[in-house]
Design goal:
It is built from 14 helices and six strands. By secondary structure, the chain is α/β, with parallel strands linked by helices. The structure holds uracil. The site of uracil has 13 residues, from helix 9.
Length: 298
Amino acid sequence: MERTRDQGVDYATMVLHLENQLNWLRKQGCTHLNLEEMPQAELHKLLEGVYRIVPEGQAAEASPPPQEPEGLKEQVRELSEQLGAEPQSPSAQPDDRPTPPSLNAPSTPAPPSTQTTTLEALQQTHHNCQRCALGKTRTHLVFGEGNAGARLLFLGEGPGADEDASGRPFVGRAGKLLSKMILSMGIDRPDVYITNVVKCRPPGNRNPEAEEVAQCFPILEQQIALINPALIITLGNVPTRALIPDIPGITKVRGKTLNYHGRTVLPTFHPAYLLRNRSAFELAWQDFRTAAQLAFSQ
Ligand code: URA
């Protein structure tokens, strides 16, 4: 703890360190700390409390091995290699192809949205959805998962084969990398919320079409309203343009904060792109650090 102070680590990083340590305490059986019930913003108060109640020497002994950001970064890099990241080929570019400008503007008015009060109710309302053609070819509608009050919402493009088979978002190779990157922020995956722009798999993993996005968009809007995240991290071009159509490609906007109806959006590369392009990893890493700072400083 002192070391963290002496090094002048920023507030968000300090909170993440503390959360790691609290998780470690919980795993040791210290169950009276109910982290699920504790708003993240309150952790700094707890930190001050820890300084007061744990004598300096004991604190050092009791601390788990520190989760150094650099060490975690290495872990994530190794994981991306294990998962089969290929050396960057000059032709491997992020998907900066223009996406239809109408991506988040429904071409036909969406059916009157049934305003629901919980994510479960929203999921229940739409679980048999057949509003677009994807409904016919999907195995499972992949609604999304995570903490219903998360400060961070990760937004992908649409389910792939693994997600279609399991009904859960980001469970394939790209998903494993995403989970590890979330962990590298000092956050457990169940503490964030993860969903996609379209909830059903586009056949052959093609990009979702404008009409498919338009039909699905009201579900996403309600998810965002119900979760009310401090930050939305968009993974790649499709989700970024679904929220904010008139932006240049992801390479130009990644790492920059954008605004979607008063909400902060931070675009970064899609993890599937990172698996193919190791050299983009450093930038994605920076974006995740920025995201942690934004999410916990508000
Ligand atoms: N890619 C996505 O965009 N979403 C998923 O859920 C999985 C892979």
